[in-house]
Amino acid sequence: MSRTVITFGTFDVFHVGHLRVIERAAALGDRLVVGVSADALNIKKKGRAPVFSEGERMEIVAALKPVDAVFREDSLEQKRDYIIEHGADVLVMGDDWEGKFDEFKDVCDVVYLTRTPAISTTALIEKISGTA
Ligand code: CTP
Q1: Domain range for residue 82?
Q2: CA–CA dist 90, 74 (Å, integer)
Q3: Which atom of ligand 1 is nearest to the CA of 125?
Q4: Which of 61, 112, 121 to mutate to test the pocket of ligand 1 (most atoms within 8 A of CB)?
Q5: 30 alpha carbon to ligand 1 midpoint, in Å?
Q6: Which atom number of ligand 1 is nearest to the Cα of residue 122?
Q7: Tens of pLDDT along 19-70?
Q8: Which of 17, 47, 49, 76 is deepest in the core (most CB within 10 A)?
Q9: C-alpha distances in angstroms, 89 versus 9, 23, 56, 67, 109?
Q10: What is the phi/psi pair of residue 6, to 5°?
Q11: What is the CATH number of the domain that holds 56?
């Protein structure tokens, strides 16, 4: 039976840590669906707009070989609905979220992957802007 994997993220200023988590998520199943967080959600949660718009971020993620489908994640509270709606068998998150999504183990497997060390969008923005 075909296994669908779902993962979520902002994927702003796309970097190799993003690529690796997507590749490893895809390897856990037959089909990978990625929820790309809405601009409004980022503004609400992080207090700033992403560098690249949600349309651009979705376009980049959708073009990756391991990605089968993308959708816009409008609310963190809708995770359960997104998992069910997309028929996901596995939820994959970076281990910065370790334990935080265990509540969904009743509807799918929940896997946390180790983050790629020493790279993040925030660190890149600081480096490029000369504030790091
Ligand atoms: N990720 C990863 N390794 C990194 C950075 C991110 O595996 N070095 C993963 C996250 O765990 C998440 C996905 O990539 O599953 C999307 O993360 P996102 O928050 O968009 O990227 P960050 O670089 O962590 O962004 P920020 O610095 O704004 O938090």
Answers
A1: 4-129
A2: 20
A3: 27
A4: 121
A5: 23
A6: 27
A7: 999 999 999 999 999 999 999 999 999 999 999 999 999 999 999 999 999 9
A8: 17
A9: 18, 17, 27, 16, 6
A10: -125, 140
A11: 3.40.50.620
Pocket of ligand 1 (CB under 6 A): 9-11, 17-18, 21, 93-94, 96, 115-116, 119-122
**What does the pLDDT average to over 74-79?**
96
Structure tokens at 28: 């856990």
Structure tokens at 84: 């069910």
How big is the chain, counted in residues? 132
Looking at residue 1, what is its pLDDT? Answer: 84
Is the predicted pLDDT of residue 131 greater than 90, yes or no?
no
SS3 string of 50-72? CCCCHHHHHHHHHCCCCCCEEEE
Q: Name the nearest CA neighbour of 96 among 74, 113, 79.
A: 113
